[in-house]
Every structure is written in C-alpha cells, then in structure tokens.
Amino acid sequence: GAVVSQHPSWVICKSGTSVKIECRSLDFQATTMFWYRQFPKQSLMLMATSNEGSKATYEQGVEKDKFLINHASLTLSTLTVTSAHPEDSSFYICSASKGRGDYGYTFGSGTRLTVV
Amino acid sequence: AQSVAQPEDQVNVAEGNPLTVKCTYSVSGNPYLFWYVQYPNRGLQFLLKYITGDNLVKGSYGFEAEFNKSQTSFHLKKPSALVSDSALYFCAVRDGNSGNTPLVFGKGTRLSVIA
C-alpha cells in the first residue's frame, strides 16, 4: 500500500502559460502533502505544505501567487505553475504521508517541467 | 531546525565490495531518519527508516543503516554492491516530536558501482 501517483511525468510549455501538476494518493487518505522542487544534481527543496481543506503553507522565498496549491480532497493535491518562465523549469515532486509520518513518506514519480 | 549533511558528493565502489554512504543529522527533538534512492528523472524510492528500537535497521534491496545517537549519524551500508545500485541517495530527517512535518533532505550522494 501507500502509492502516490503524480501526473504528468513531463511537460513542455511556452512562457506565460500555466501548468497544473496533480498528485494523488491511490490507496490511502493523505491529510498532508508536500511539494518539493529539485534542480539538476541538487537536493529536494521544500516548496510548500498542502493541507486538505485549508490554505497551503509556503516556505520562505516561494511565491504563493506563482505556485498555486490546492488540496481539495484527502486524495488529491494540485500544484499550478502560473505564468511560467524558463527559470521555473525544474523537477517537481510531491510527497504524502499516511499518518503521523513515522510510517514514512511516499513520493510521486516527479514531473519534469520545461518552459520554452 | 533540522539539517542533514551528506559529506560526499560521489562514492565509487567496485561491484561486490561493501559500500557506505555517510549521513549526519541535526534535530532538536526526536530524530526520525530515512534513506531514499532516486534514479534519473524519477521520484524517490523508500529504502529504510529509523524511528525507534534497534539501532541497526534493515531495508530494501539488502541495504541497512546504523543509527548512532552519540555521533548523530545514520550511515547507509550494503555488504556487497551491485551495478544496479548506482543511483542518487538521499538521507532525510524530521523531528518526531513535531507532528506531521516535512522531511529535510541532505544534498544527496551519487553512488557509482563499477563492474
């Protein structure tokens, strides 16, 4: 159990357009999901914590108006990159926990975003 | 605040030899420690975790890690490396006293197993 599905796996978009990335917990309910961003050959940087039914908590330096997070149900969180620019190109990964976190965190397969 | 240090960017080992990937951590409360592996353009795969109990933790694919509280370390080990173990490895920590908080990751160590 504990499968997280993330779509799309990769996306190419033009500058100025918006892209939505979905993260679904397939076999468990996730009250909390986390969104990370990973630059090439670097670690995962936490962008925001997504809580079902409430506003996301963003890390310092992350623009909440640019990276819109919605967690409308216990199995779905979405990240929308608005008015994307080439510097937004990155690998985005979501993560969810079944419970208090001592069960471990399950990660999605990631989304490679390229803005041209 | 939590932090993780992975002092080696790259570890090279010959196939069949033992491997060690180092990790030290800092956490104000109770450490929950994790190791993940990442293959190119993929998400993270869980290897093992330490929450409580025995300091030696056994995980997936023959990997194990030893929790050392005095040295604040959680090194990843495997007795006999395989070429297929070549990947990027991340150590992560969270404070177990702080509810459902996100993991803090080290910068990663690239393991290269040479045939």
How would you describe this protein?
The complex is a heterodimer of chains A (116) and B (115). Chain A is 0% helix and 53% strand. By secondary structure, chain A is mostly beta strands. In chain A, the strands form two sheets. In chain A, strands 2, 4, 5, 6, 9, 10 and 11 form a seven-stranded mixed beta sheet that branches. The relative contact order of chain A is 0.32. The mean pLDDT of chain A is 90. Chain B is mainly β and 115 residues long. Helix content of chain B is 0%, strand content 52%. Chain B is built from no helices and twelve strands. In chain B, strands 2, 5, 6, 10, 11 and 12 form a six-stranded mixed beta sheet that branches. In chain B, strand 10 and strand 11 form a beta hairpin.
Short structural description:
The complex is a heterodimer of chains A (116) and B (115). Chain A has 116 residues and is mainly beta.
Topology:
The complex is a heterodimer of chains A (116) and B (115).
Chain A: E1 4-7, E2 10-13, E3 19-25, E4 32-38, E5 44-51, E6 57-58, E7 67-73, E8 76-81, E9 90-97, E10 105-107, E11 111-115
Parallel strand pairs in A: 2-11
Antiparallel strand pairs in A: 1-3, 3-8, 4-5, 4-9, 5-6, 7-8, 9-10, 9-11
Chain B: E1 3-5, E2 10-14, E3 19-21, E4 24-26, E5 31-38, E6 44-50, E7 56-58, E8 64-68, E9 73-78, E10 87-95, E11 104-105, E12 109-114
Parallel strand pairs in B: 2-12
Antiparallel strand pairs in B: 1-4, 3-9, 5-6, 5-10, 7-8, 8-9, 10-11, 10-12
